[in-house]
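Sharing a chain and its predicted structure for anyone who wants a worked example. Both blocks are below, sequence first, tokens second.
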Amino acid sequence: MTASGAAGDLGGIPRLVLDDDGLDRLELAQGGWLPPSTLPGAVTSGTGLLLTDRENSPLALLEASDGAGPTLRVLRALSRGSGPHWDPAARMSLADLRARTAGASSGVLACVIDDVPTRVDEDVLVSTARAAREDAIVVIVPVARRPLPPGRVGAAGLTRVAWAVADGLAADRPERTVIRLVLPWPTDGLADLGRVLGAAGVGPSARVTDLRSADELGRVSALPDMLEREVGDLYPPASAREVLRAHRSAPERGAVVFLTGLSGSGKSTIARALADELADEDPRRVTLLDGDEVRHHLSRGLGFDAESRAANIDRIAWVASLIAAHGGIAVAAPIAPFGDGRRAARRMAEEHGAFLLVYVSTPLEVCEARDRKGLYARARAGEIEEFTGISSPYEVPEDADLIVDTTSLDVADAVGQVRDALEAKLAGG
């Protein structure tokens, strides 16, 4: 079903840019959980359909076959973020899971943690698992790349909770095998999780949100309004309105995290992982302003001459400073090759909040060796003018608040360093 292969010359193949849900589906197909026919887009010609991310990096090729559906040729591994839900040991393929459960002669029970378990939920899960005859349990966390609405526990937090449940199940029956599995699960609708698990030989399934009583569902759904109810009980109506208004109008101090570096340096990967972590763990609203996406929307029509580059950075800085002014965190990851533009961005942002300049200093030769989009090769061939690092200069920041090099530093460590630096900035350091 899935084969790997080099990207080669993909210039004439129709392309489809995948959103977060599409990337979740692609990961499921690459892992053998779903057939390639469930992927977005359709193969309409013998050349196939090239699937890319938002940065236009080729990821996989859907190709026509003589069988019932298309085949999937993997061109590049999907980028990973940081946090427990990105642990490769848990984010396993179908083949990996089958290898882990091969010795389970009495079957495999699935415990699906699709919401934060209450005390009652946890008691029911333990009781269900204790009574089950299966000699292996898979604790499954379905998570999406698409961020959840504010106030919801995100993928990292849900995974931490699920692993605590897994520890409890393992302690309850030490002779039983407990396996931890993270499944990418898109938010745009997909085949029933139970059917996917059944096809994988996993079942029956105990799912947190299916085990709740009507009373428990009511208590969980009432949580968002708890503060208003308590304030309403404590104060008369006029006082309650003012107390709630003051509570809602007191934003946290905002910030702009501005990552700069060459194409292929890893700044976009760090920015996305950072934004995901902050969205999950920080009370502020987090907005990602990635360089390629900004070029496609906010700065559409701008070229790559010095004046256009300056205008692009100015637009990013202006939007980022507005986000900071309203108590949010903006994470921006443009190349931003010129010092004047970066200094102007700092001045604009610091009028409203903290500003953290992160120089992703990965050397040119490493960036060029990666060349995910084939841009360096085209620039060397003279097909792209004004390409930073080749035919246009990159001015190394002398005022960077943090310098990271992704040559040997992994994403999780890089994100950790940026978060430490950001917390120091927000604390006034």
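Comments welcome. The radius of gyration is 24 Å.
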